[in-house]
Amino acid sequence: MKTSALPLSILDLCPVTLGSTPRDALRNSLDLARAAEQMGYHRFWVAEHHNMVGIASAATSVVIGYLAAGTERIRIGSGGIMLPNHSPLQIAEQFGTLESLYPGRIDLGLGRAPGTDMLTARALRRGRTDGEDFPQMLEELRHYFAEPEPGQRLVAVPGAGLDIPIWLLGSSTFSAQLAASLGLPFAFAGQFSPDYMLAAMQGYREAFQPSDKLQQPLAMLGINAFVAETRDEAHYLATSHQQSFLNMIRGERGLLRPPVENMDELWLPHERHQVLSTLAGTLIGDEQTVAQQIADLRERYGMDELIVNSPIFDQEKRRDSYRRLMRAAARL
Asked: Where is the Luciferase-like domain (predicted)?
């Protein structure tokens, strides 16, 4: 007996590949969003990162507007906006504008990490960089989205009174607990923080308090995925992502590189362990293999939705991986 369909969504970092430009990356993301809409994906989110030459989504609200304008039905949102990098009023106005332009299609996913290194975080935040004031900033942001009270002097225009879904994002248990206490949906970044997946997902469900926004917990799990005709090809495609994380732990930044036949020629044994541990939250293989991996994930974590990051060097291979992923999920 088949289980109920698992909604699939896409997390895209607008990867800049070797030999290309941010302009190319943004066009590729729009191409992918259009393809995702045709394939039946539920959401297409982009993430805020700064001072990274291989990621073109730093101006996240602008990119969301570009993607929403080029699509028709798929929900477009942030996975996420790093709220402490911004004024809550500015985010309310930006997403109020997006919702006014593309009503019923905009999601606001929020994180508290800087999405960059500490030097860049200080340049962005001009103050504390620990994110400890995130709950207060979130409360202020939600106030701006509420219906204005009589005599209220500070109003987000557009923004006030608009029903824009707010998701809390996390790579630990902090945002899981906060989302549960506020009755908000929660998305966990399992694509780079697999060690906390179970604790965060279970903790969110167990502590969830119903709210006027959400009566039941709504949990989305982030994961990497590389799906190809054969397992060998899928593992080959995944080496581009592995190279990016290898360079990251070496303190190097660069563009998304082409896949390689043998990663053992590039990393040392301790680096291999660190990269593969960080990327343990990855679906990889042919469609049949990945279908079983999704079923195992669902049984273990009980997610309501899966959001997938597939940083594949070749654009057509990237589209093909998402096509195959959708077919794999349909096997459940």
From this structure: 20-300
